[in-house]
Design a protein that fits this description.
Elements: E1 17-22, E2 27-29, E3 49-56, E4 59-64, E5 70-72, E6 75-83, E7 87-89, E8 100-109, E9 119-135, E10 138-149, E11 155-162, E12 168-174, E13 177-183, E14 192-197
Antiparallel strand pairs: 1-2, 1-3, 3-4, 4-5, 5-6, 6-7, 6-12, 8-9, 9-10, 10-11, 11-14, 12-13
């Protein structure tokens, strides 16, 4: 589904739609590509997911449910947390990242002097996941959301909580090469969050 160029446009007026691609090759999209009927996000079968993301405007943006690695406009994005002693793999782990998330940011614009002048506009599309896992004796809660604002650069919002104090940094990889380090010391059970522009 995500590799099919004919499906990289939205079947409705909004620029992007979420799409859940299943292991058997079938899919469920926010709006059906034939009937245009809206589907419910809660209808997604998470145990059978292969990929989840957005299609539209000729673009394909998603993550592989097994491993949680993002594929954004043909680029593979991975994230590690690195200290002087150890590297903690946040994406690419041998597990399913199936607690999927998607939502839209919107604003309502109106002229208070003109009745019926209001209009709702989507300002940003978001998709990703949250997960938890243990590496050695350290528990992690990790959330990764790809944010696609209208007419601006996309970014990743990364949130991380550790059960221990860690003095490290996030390592962001593009197509297997580390392209950025972000200092990110963590206090036990206290979350940290960063935004990283997809450039």
């Amino acid at each position: 589904m995500f590799g099919n160029r004919e499906m990289m446009t939205s079947p409705v007026q909004q620029p992007f739609v979420w799409v859940a691609e299943y292991l058997d090759g079938s899919h469920l999209s926010e709006f059906d590509y034939i009937t245009k009927k809206e589907n419910n996000f809660c209808s997604i079968h998470r145990d059978n997911l292969l990929r989840f993301g957005l299609l539209g405007n000729g673009a394909s943006m998603y993550f592989e449910v097994y491993g949680g690695i993002f594929k954004i406009l043909g680029q593979m994005i991975e994230v590690d947390y690195v200290t002087n002693e150890k590297s903690y793999q946040l994406t690419g782990r041998a597990m399913n990242y199936k607690d999927i998330i998607t939502y839209k940011d919107a604003e309502f614009v109106f002229n208070p002097k003109v009745e019926g002048s209001g209009q709702t506009m989507i300002t940003q599309f978001n998709f990703g996941y949250k997960t938890k896992f243990t590496i050695d004796d350290t528990d992690f809660h990790f959330q990764a959301i790809c944010q696609i604002p209208m007419n601006q650069l996309a970014s990743l919002e990364l949130r991380l909580v550790s059960s221990k104090d860690l003095n490290g940094r996030l390592a962001i990889k593009r197509n297997g090469r580390t392209v950025d380090f972000i200092e990110a010391p963590l206090q036990s059970n206290l979350g940290g969050s960063i935004h990283w522009e997809l450039r």
